[in-house]
From TrEMBL:
Species this protein is from: Virgibacillus alimentarius
Gene Ontology molecular function: any one: corrinoid adenosyltransferase activity
EC code: 2.5.1.17
InterPro entries with a match to the protein in the record: CblAdoTrfase-like, CblAdoTrfase-like_sf, PduO-typ
UniProt-recorded name of the protein: Corrinoid adenosyltransferase
UniProt keyword list: ATP-binding, Cobalamin biosynthesis, Nucleotide-binding, Transferase
Pathway in which this enzyme or protein is active: Cofactor biosynthesis; adenosylcobalamin biosynthesis; adenosylcobalamin from cob(II)yrinate a,c-diamide: step 2/7
Catalysed reactions, as listed in the record: 2 cob(II)yrinate a,c diamide + reduced [electron-transfer flavoprotein] + 2 ATP = 2 adenosylcob(III)yrinate a,c-diamide + 2 triphosphate + oxidized [electron-transfer flavoprotein] + 3 H(+); 2 cob(II)alamin + reduced [electron-transfer flavoprotein] + 2 ATP = 2 adenosylcob(III)alamin + 2 triphosphate + oxidized [electron-transfer flavoprotein] + 3 H(+)
PANTHER family: CORRINOID ADENOSYLTRANSFERASE (PTHR12213), CORRINOID ADENOSYLTRANSFERASE MMAB (PTHR12213:SF0)
UniProt key word ATP-binding: yes
Coiled-coil ranges from the UniProt annotation: none
Annotated family: Belongs to the Cob(I)alamin adenosyltransferase family.
């Protein structure tokens, strides 16, 4: 099997239901999700298999689900078989509720970084936010984009923020607060989630 097809040499690529330009916003959106997925893979390679077994299990699940998001965004046909579900979103919310008390109390914005795997997760988080913005633009430009994908991408970026802090906490690496940040997180709500003032 050859790894190259030459079918994209004219600047077009295949999606589910036809072909589009490689700079189409749809391609930008799911290509950016693939970029985020690669940084998740980098973090997986950096995490200790015993200390972070729970997080590694989550990250493998999320890597598959990011592919699911890309698949759902690739449809340009009316015959949809979407893969992303409300259950995926609910799972991320449940996990964040579990992790919220493991990291130190958060009052101010923090700088991305700390340990090497946490830094990789922060990169995945920011790339995922970029994908989210592209999905919003895609939804404005074209009908039929599944809203659940946008909700999932929003939650998974929040999840990345949560586990980056947990990773640093387990490795006894302190998050660095942004020195000019006011206190922007005003305690917690009933679900244990930090409230942004």
């Amino acid at each position: 099997m050859r790894l190259y097809t030459k079918s994209g040499d004219k600047g077009f690529t295949s999606v589910i239901g036809g072909r589009v330009s490689k700079d189409d916003i749809r391609i930008e959106a799911y290509g950016t999700l693939d970029e985020a997925n690669s940084f998740v893979g980098k973090a997986v390679a950096e995490l200790d298999k015993e200390l972070f077994k729970d997080i590694l299990d989550d990250l493998e699940k999320i890597q598959h689900e990011l592919f699911d998001c890309g698949s759902d965004l690739a449809y340009i046909t009316d015959k949809h078989q979407y893969k992303v579900s409300e259950e995926m979103v609910a799972y991320l919310e449940e996990k964040m509720d579990e992790y919220i008390n493991e990291a130190p109390k958060l009052e101010r914005f923090i700088l991305p970084g700390g340990s090497s795997p946490a830094a990789s997760i922060h990169i995945a988080r920011t790339v995922t936010r970029r994908a989210e913005r592209l999905i919003v633009s895609l939804m404005k430009a074209q009908d039929g984009i599944p809203e659940i994908v946008l909700r999932y991408v929003n939650r998974v970026s929040d999840y990345f923020f949560a586990i980056a802090r947990v990773i640093n906490a387990r490795l006894h690496v302190s998050d660095v607060e942004y020195i000019r940040s006011a206190k922007v997180f005003r305690g917690t709500n009933k679900k244990g989630e930090h409230k942004n003032g």
